[in-house]
Design brief:
Layout (H helix, E strand, L loop, with lengths): L4 E3 L13 E3 L1 H6 L4 E2 L3 E2 L27 E6 L5 E7 L4 H9 L8 E6 L3 H15 L22 H11 L2 H11 L21
Parallel strand pairs: 1-2
Antiparallel strand pairs: 3-7, 4-7, 5-6, 5-7
Length: 198
């Protein structure tokens, strides 16, 4: 891919580049922000070294988990196919090519580089829940439960729910919470007192 314009990273913390822009991930992750690289056509038959393009590959000065990225595969209709994370350049993509039954359907790939492994893990869970790629088995529905403190600040409980629950579940829950009469509260016993106080 030819760089037509290097986009400033501040524009890409939450949105993809515009047509013709190519993000410099190094500057983004140095600033603590993710770099969302443009969707591109995948060459499924490319040598392992070419499965990732310029800007997607980990620079030589980085080692280990210092260049974690989220990869998102899409089919020919640009429907979400499979999402994953890695920090090992094209090794994980090569493993998919050798063993994933969905690989022949992969036509497009989008790569987002993150400043830390924790941030890429959170982004992967959110992307899977939001886009519902059909070949991901894990994290599609989110966690089975969220531990809420019902006597703490309501804003903290809401933040946990919005982070981990699906939008459909949240809409149903909001509708039910707006109808408290449907869920009568238990009747407490009368105040305790001695028999001669009656």
């Amino acid at each position: 891919m030819i760089k037509t314009k290097i986009a400033p990273c501040s524009a890409h913390a939450d949105s993809p580049p515009e047509a013709g822009e190519w993000v410099d991930p190094w500057n983004c992750i140095q600033g603590g922000k993710p770099a969302h690289l443009p969707l591109r056509r995948l060459d499924r038959e490319a040598p392992k070294a070419d499965l990732l393009k310029e800007g997607e590959r980990r620079p030589d000065r980085f080692t280990g988990t210092e260049w974690p990225f989220l990869y998102r595969f899409y089919d020919a209709g640009r429907r979400p196919l499979y999402f994953g994370i890695t920090s090992t350049n094209a090794t994980r993509l090569e493993a998919h090519r050798k063993g994933a039954e969905w690989w022949p359907m992969a036509e497009f790939i989008a790569v987002s580089v993150y400043p830390s492994y924790l941030s890429v893990q959170a982004a992967e869970r959110a992307a899977i829940r939001h886009e519902q790629p059909r070949c991901n088995k894990r994290d599609r529905r989110g966690p089975a439960y969220v531990r809420l403190h019902v006597d703490g600040p309501a804003e903290e409980a809401a933040a946990l729910l919005f982070r981990d629950a699906s939008p459909v579940f949240l809409a149903e829950l909001a509708e039910l919470l707006a109808s408290p009469a449907r869920f009568p509260r238990p009747e407490p016993p009368p105040p305790a007192r001695f028999a001669d106080e009656a």
